[in-house]
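Need a sequence for this fold. Nothing fancy.
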């Protein structure tokens, strides 16, 4: 190997290592054991349904899928929710399901959102990208 190739390989290794560390630090801590969480679904017509789950799961996506509250597709950023509580987002209307916790929008997908006992999440059908 020539010197330039070795330097590029070292830089690539450092960048990959740094990206892995950043991801693991931002993923959030999980807590094992029994938890109770609430999930409030806010439909397009503004009607709401509240679901309470007792679970040992560590991530929100596990709970939603196990209880068949959501359908979705796995993508490069995790679970992309397409349908909640029987209502499917309409791409032609730029609809999508927004995940919030205590009214604050999350920047993680459902399958990378850790849960703790007493959490309350909202899944709101939102229009417009």
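Here you go.
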């Amino acid at each position: 190997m020539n010197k330039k190739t070795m330097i590029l390989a070292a830089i690539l290794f450092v960048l990959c290592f740094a990206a892995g560390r950043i991801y693991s630090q931002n993923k959030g801590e999980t807590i094992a054991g029994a938890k109770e969480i609430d999930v409030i679904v806010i439909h397009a017509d503004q009607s709401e349904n509240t679901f309470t789950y007792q679970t040992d799961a560590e991530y929100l996506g596990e709970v939603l899928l196990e209880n068949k509250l959501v359908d979705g597709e796995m993508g490069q950023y995790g679970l992309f929710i397409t349908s909640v509580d029987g209502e499917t987002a309409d791409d032609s209307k730029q609809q999508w399901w927004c995940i919030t916790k205590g009214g604050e929008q999350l920047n993680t997908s459902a399958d990378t959102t850790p849960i703790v006992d007493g959490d309350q999440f909202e899944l709101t059908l939102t229009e417009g990208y």
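For context: The first strand starts at residue 35 and ends at 42.
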